[in-house]
Amino acid sequence: MALTMIDPNTALIVVDLQKGIVESPPTETVRGVVETTCNLLIRTFRERALPVVLVNVAGRAPGRTETASRISGDFPEDFTDFIPELDPQPGDIIVTKRTWGAFASTDLEARLKARGVTQVVITGVATGTGVEATARQAYEAGFNVTLAVDAMTDPRPDAHDYSVRHVFPRLGETGMSADIITLLPSRGAA
């Protein structure tokens, strides 16, 4: 679905841009997304007093054993730390998840609805897992969903392409960050 509008009460959700994922193994694709489009969206949402949700992952759902974890044993001490470029602010909503999506087993839905949020713009990594799962869950929770396709990436290009072409159009609207910013309202000081 093409990008047509952004609701007045829209939140930005940034998925898994944390040291343990972005820096292991480091990829230029992720760095490019972070340093340009994600940061531009974050700055713009903050300037317009719209909620910014920073999501990190601290493991997997309890009891899940059917697949091996990328990291065996305990996570490194700074695994869940957001990358410095995100510059977390006191007004940001911080969500730590243990599933692919940011809504399952967290209070994110309640926190957003308490703020009157009706739409979410989703960015981050990886397109075919964390971003897609979060988009599916947001859709199921009744939020209008917008996906900033130039502000997400996946180390598996085929997974990224499949999500963008076949899954995202069924969940909401897709667009480029610049177009989202053009349509983005301002709520004034929060």
Structure description:
The protein is globular. Helix 4 (127-140) packs parallel to helix 5 (157-171). The chain is built from six helices and six strands, in the order E-H-H-E-E-H-E-H-E-H-E-H. Helix 5 (157-171) links the parallel strand 5 (144-153) and strand 6. The chain has one domain (10-61, 89-183): Rossmann fold (3-Layer(aba) Sandwich), CATH 3.40.50.850. The chain has helices at 19-22, 28-47, 108-114, 127-140, 157-171, 177-183, and strands at 10-15, 52-57, 93-97, 119-125, 144-153, 173-175. The chain has a six-stranded parallel sheet, with helices on both faces. With 190 residues, the protein is α/β, with parallel strands linked by helices. It is 35% helix and 19% strand.
Give the key terms.
190 residues, alpha/beta, Rossmann fold, 6-stranded parallel β-sheet, globular, hydrolase, Isochorismatase-like_hydrls, Isochorismatase-like_dom
